[in-house]
Structures are given as C-alpha cells and as structure tokens.
Structure prediction request, 183 residues.
Amino acid sequence: MRATVMYGAGNVRVETVPDARVVEPTDAVVAVTRAAICGSDLWPYKSMEPSENGRRMGHEFIGVLEDVGADVHTMKAGDLVISPFVWSDGTCVFCQEGLQPSCLHGGRYGDDGVDGGQGEAVRVPQADGTLVVLPVGRDDALMPSLLTLSDVMATGHHAALAANVGPGKTVAVVGTAPSACAP
Prediction:
C-alpha cells in the first residue's frame, strides 16, 4: 500500500509500505477514503531529526472497515467509520473521564509501528474504544464536514472549554491548521 512517510524536516515521501493488517484481536483495518492534514503534522516538517526508518504521517481520517479482530464487537467489515486523532481503549479511568488522549492503553497514529492516517489503510488498535461508525454513506455530501470531527472540531471544543467561553463573552478565534480534505 502507499503511505506518507517523513524522514526528517522537509523530507516527506509517498512510499510503498507493508499493508495494514490486524495484529491484535482488538484491531481493525480501515481503508482510508478521506484524510486531513493537522498542524501537528506540520511541526515535525520543520523540526524532525533525520531518521533512517521514517515516521508514518497523519491522524485525521474517515474510511471503510476492511477487517476487524476477533475482539471487536461494535462494528463490522463494510462500516464507514471516523477516527479521533488518538487511539484509546475507551475503558480506562482516563477514557471514562473523557480524557482519551491520556488513555493508559492508547497511543498516537504513526508511533510504535502503528500506521498513519495519510495512507491507503490504517491498522487501528483498540478499535471498539476508538472508531465511531458514521450513519451516512461513503459518498455523502457531508464528508468534508464530518472529517473535521476527527480532530479540528474536538480541538476547538476543548479550547472553548479551557477558555471558559460562554454567553456574553468576547472571543477571538485564530485558525492555524490547514485541515485540507482529500477525497
């Protein structure tokens, strides 16, 4: 399969890499139909130290489930799913408090041998705690808007909560992530 791999600052390549596959029984394989670029994808573009192995890029994606492990029970092959920017088990103390980025059993796409979202397919660990089945078809006109739910909208929501935004308050919003939708 083809995937985006970064080997250092400014050194990004689209390469043939091993196909995504179920490794653990809690995994799912998602064929990516839409992906976005986030500001956190751009940070290493300016500062990543050179690497011989490179790092898979991307963490914002929508796709169709190609395969699920034996312990995945909330979705099936053929479902259209969206992934948040990290994978998590959905059951640990942090996940139960809505803090999935701090999941005791989770991680980030592109790290520790996990595929990145800017590839043809992604192995998603902890699929039941991570992926959300979308109630629309693959070609629905809402796809570009739904893709923003993978990271951009959640980041904005978190920022609004952290800033105590509310009725009667004045807020300045500065957008910095490109979040360019790619079909």
Q: What stands out?
A: The first helix runs from residue 39 to 47. Residues 179-183 have pLDDT under 50 and may be disordered.
